[in-house]
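As agreed, record minuted below.
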Amino acid sequence: MSKYTQKTLAKLRDDGATVGMVEHWNQYDHKRHDLFGFIDIIAIFPESRRIVAVQSTGPSGHVDHKRKILAEPRCLEWLRSGGIVELWSWRKLLVKRGGKARHWVPRIEEITEDMFDVSS
């Protein structure tokens, strides 16, 4: 499990979600596989009645992961079924302007149905 996945799980738990990691390691092809090709984590928020599919990455992976999500037809099915999809990319930002201390902050982008090219 990557440090970005660990940070995402911790933040989601702090936000009150029940979380489950659904990415898995395939010992035969020696690769990680996401649920439905785009989900690392499922977060359930009982109070707000939301189910969120989360893909997490580091600071340099945001664009590539977004492209991967938008190329996956099952993501569109997830959204049309009432699910929410979020892309979390973690980066270190300065705590105080001019200072040296930094802390990890997620950039959270919600993926919506209108982002997909459904013209064909």
The longest strand covers residues 84-94. The longest helix spans residues 3-14. The domain at 3-114 is CATH 3.40.1350 (Trna Endonuclease; Chain: A, domain 1).
